[in-house]
Design brief:
Blueprint (H helix, E strand, L loop, with lengths): L6 H27 L4 H11 L5 E3 H8 L3 H13 L3 E5 L7 E5 L1 H18 L2 H8 L1 H12 L1
Antiparallel strand pairs: 1-3, 2-3
Helix pairs in contact: 1-5, 2-5, 3-4, 6-7
Length: about 140
């Protein structure tokens, strides 16, 4: 019988484990400092990077690789925190647009500082260890 964990499979498993550890660390730091999860931070950044900090739920879902209903569920607590507001389209009642409030823009900036602190030096260490790894990860993130 062929070994189940070949070197390429082991690399994928190691990458997944490393991502889980990093995501838990980001979650922990963001929630203790600013009260949001890393998933919520990703949502806020996707909104902040949209034109006029406004996007439809479908557009957010596409950017984040989740379903539109997943976006709806994720936005509810952010709306309660008054960092995101939802507006109905004037031309299409079925279309709801999410927008960052001023408090939401401030939260994105604050959270970005927390994320930067967690990641400080990590990118440079990975590039020093294996320059191609950082390039591969960047390419995967764009897909």
């Amino acid at each position: 019988m062929e070994p189940q964990v070949t070197p390429p499979r082991q690399q994928v498993l190691d990458l997944a484990a490393a991502w889980q550890r990093l995501e838990r660390r980001l979650d922990s730091n963001l929630s203790s400092v600013r009260g949001v999860s890393f998933a919520e931070y990703r949502m806020l950044v996707a909104l902040a990077d949209s034109p006029s900090a406004t996007a439809s739920r479908v557009d957010l879902a596409t950017k984040l690789g989740v379903t539109p209903s997943g976006v709806t569920r994720a936005l509810r607590p952010l709306e309660k925190l008054h960092v995101v507001e939802t507006q109905r389209s004037e031309r299409d009642a079925r279309l709801a647009l999410a927008s960052l409030t001023d408090a939401g823009k401030e939260l994105v900036d604050d959270c970005s500082g927390v994320v930067d602190d967690v990641l400080a030096g990590l990118y440079e260490r990975s590039r020093a260890a294996d320059p191609s790894l950082a390039d591969v990860l960047a390419e995967l993130a764009e897909q």
